[in-house]
Design goal:
Bound molecules: nicotinamide-adenine-dinucleotide
CATH topology: Rossmann fold
Strand content: 5-15%
Shape: globular
Number of domains: 1
Structural class: alpha/beta
CATH class: Alpha Beta
Number of strands: 7
Order of helices and strands: EHEHEHEHEHEHHE
CATH architecture: 3-Layer(aba) Sandwich
Amino acid sequence: MQPGKRLLDKVAIISGGASGIGAETARLFAAHGASVVLCDLQDELGHGVAQEITDAGGVAEYHTLDVCDEDRWLFIVADTERKYGKVNVLGNIAGISGRPAGMTVQTGNIAGTPLTEQTLENWNRIMAVNATGVFLGTKSVIPAMQRAGGGSVINISSICGIVGSFANAAYHASKGAVRIFSKSAAIQYAKDQIRVNSVHPGFVDTPMARPGLLGNESGKARMEATPLGRFGKPIDIAMGCLYLASDEASWVTGSELVIDGGLTAG
Ligand SMILES: NC(=O)c1ccc[n+]([C@@H]2O[C@H](COP(=O)([O-])OP(=O)(O)OC[C@H]3O[C@@H](n4cnc5c(N)ncnc54)[C@H](O)[C@@H]3O)[C@@H](O)[C@H]2O)c1
């Protein structure tokens, strides 16, 4: 392995690759030698990230993907295997907050919709993208990873998958599902050297989280609750994903990597 190149010859598919943590993870993986297939619903941004990577000398391409669409997952996995010969890494990073439109600021103990006002439609949508999307991505990629002799599936959960709060209970439930789904998948496919781990970010400054972080009471409270005294940057999470994707983590499966500035340590 060349110094600085921790993913040489690896092929990675990354959902949510057009923005925030997914885009940064794609950039980092490519900088470490991986060929990266980014997928998202935001086509213009996604093409832009792929272009940025290829302009910097990396290998990347972008595909439209709704993570709830199993056929599309199967197409992307097959297309990746056909073009690059294999799939080694899947980053299930796409997600939604499910915050109701218009609720841009989450404050104190009215951070989300109270349960009695939560609609079934909102619940189902959050579970579909955040939990079912992770299931479909993992399911679709496993046969290709078996053919490759192993692989690494990295599922982005959240600290919300470990602890509860006043925020949207459906978001918590979806991220809790990702956490325990990852452990089950890890046990089922360890025999194939397919590793499955979850990552649990705290508050990270991305387009999704920014409305609740900057310039309001909610942001102040969240900053105070973060012992390291700053919000996360997408690169903080991407670095954890890099470790899990690399062979350095070859004995790591079914684990949960918390990257939260110490928020849940207390
Ligand atoms: N930012 C945080 O504070 C934070 C904290 C914990 C966990 N997370 C998780 O990190 C992941 C990345 O979020 P982010 O903060 O980078 O936000 P982001 O909004 O910048 O990125 C999320 C991406 O997912 C894509 N996406 C949404 N629905 C999709 C679908 N159905 N199919 C395909 N793509 C879809 C969006 O288009 C977007 O590009 C999410 O799973 C989120 O829940 C974020």
